[in-house]
Amino acid sequence: MRYANILATGRYVPEKVLTNADVERIIGEPVDAWLQQNVGIKQRHLMADNQVTSDLCVEAAKQAMERAGVKPQDLDLIIISTDTPDYLSPATASAVQAKLGASNAGTYDINAACAGWVTALDVASKTIAADDSYQRILVVGAYGMSRYINWKDKKTCTLFADGAGAVVLGASDKPGFMGAKLLAAGEYHDALGVYTGGTYRPATAQTLELTNGKPSVQFVRKFPATFNTERWPMLLKQLLERAKLTMNDVDHFVFTQLNLRTIEATMKVLEQPMSKTNWTMDKWGYTGSACIPMTLDDAVVQGRIKKGDLVALCASGGGLAMASALYRWTA
Ligand SMILES: CC(C)(COP(=O)(O)OP(=O)(O)OC[C@H]1O[C@@H](n2cnc3c(N)ncnc32)[C@H](O)[C@@H]1OP(=O)(O)O)[C@@H](O)C(=O)NCCC(=O)NCCS
Hints:
- The protein has helices spanning 20-27, 32-38, 53-68, 92-100, 116-130, 154-157, 205-208, 227-242, 260-269, 281-284, 288-301; strands spanning 3-12, 16-19, 43-46, 77-81, 106-110, 136-144, 162-172, 177-184, 192-194, 217-219, 252-255, 310-317, 321-328.
- The protein is an alpha/beta fold.
- It has 2 domains: 3-173, Thiolase/Chalcone synthase (Peroxisomal Thiolase, Chain A, domain 1, 3-Layer(aba) Sandwich); 179-328, Thiolase/Chalcone synthase (Peroxisomal Thiolase, Chain A, domain 1).
- The strands form 4 sheets. The protein has a 5-stranded mixed sheet, sandwiched between helices. A 4-stranded mixed sheet has the order 8-13-12-11, sandwiched between helices. The chain has a two-stranded antiparallel ribbon with strand order 2-3.
- α4 links the parallel β4 and β5.
- The longest helix has 16 residues, at 53-68.
- The protein starts with a strand and ends with a strand.
- It binds coenzyme A (COA).
- The site of coenzyme A (COA) has 19 residues, from α2, α6 and β12.
- Coenzyme A binds next to α2, α6 and β12.
- Residues 108-184 form the Beta-ketoacyl-[acyl-carrier-protein] synthase III N-terminal domain.
- This is 3-oxoacyl-[acyl-carrier-protein] synthase, KASIII.
- It holds the Pfam family ACP_syn_III_C.
- Keywords: Acyltransferase, Transferase.
- Residues 240-329 form the Beta-ketoacyl-[acyl-carrier-protein] synthase III C-terminal domain.
């Protein structure tokens, strides 16, 4: 049997910091107390004017590849998960391939909004298991959402941030990857996202007026407040049952980092201590498709994930897309 193993992780956090106080100065309204109490965000990082999403990917990828001892030419495939690409077309993965000099790698992007990176990890892991011509795959989650922020919209400009996280996967006869479960509630596809710039509403002078002059991320309509706290435990339970494991077997959980209160409520439902999870929205804001690999890397760097540990990843995002995966840590 061939299994995918995570050889190493990496991340890139852009230099520029915007604290809650900085955001208050921009929007002219107090938001710090609300953000800390309701979602746990204290500050966020934004990319520089001369950076694009592929640049964030390259920095995170270089760190993961250096730690894995993998050279650009060793990569067979590069998968980028993002819903804030360099261009509508072609794929950001091609720009990353060129910038890394990974000339032997195939490339494509996966967009499942903020559930995209766990989805990409699932696809990459199964590719390694199914086809022995794939030995090394780079899987990057990247978010350049600051380019799509309407700074007049308090409900979005306070949350979203930029960053990237990456893993290098390698083939092994030991598992590694132990399964994934994807699900979507497509009836909410029009609830949150960037709705201008595609075929539905092309970017024209008229349509751009709707979002302060540029395609912007929007919360259009609400979905139930309990959406994640109901679905995350259900996804994880199904995943663990299939692997003949229980919630108590999991050593570390990594969740989508939009709302710390949601993570606390989920851990309570799972009857697991908060010491079995970590969070990064306090220092990095909400980094969407990048938040799971960035937070995974944060746990690894802090020594909170060790060889032999069982790690459960659980994501949700616009769409509403959801993805969960189980990995035995072998690095
Ligand atoms: C986004 C989320 C944090 C907003 O919280 P909420 O309690 O639903 O907030 P509401 O929109 O009901 O707003 C209630 C009040 O809180 C305040 N508020 C809401 N969002 C705010 C923000 N981002 N910053 C500051 N204040 C905010 C406002 O005062 C608002 O009152 P108003 O509408 O009269 O102005 C919450 O709905 C959530 O966690 N959703 C999950 C999203 C998710 O998982 N998405 C998947 C990944 S993208």
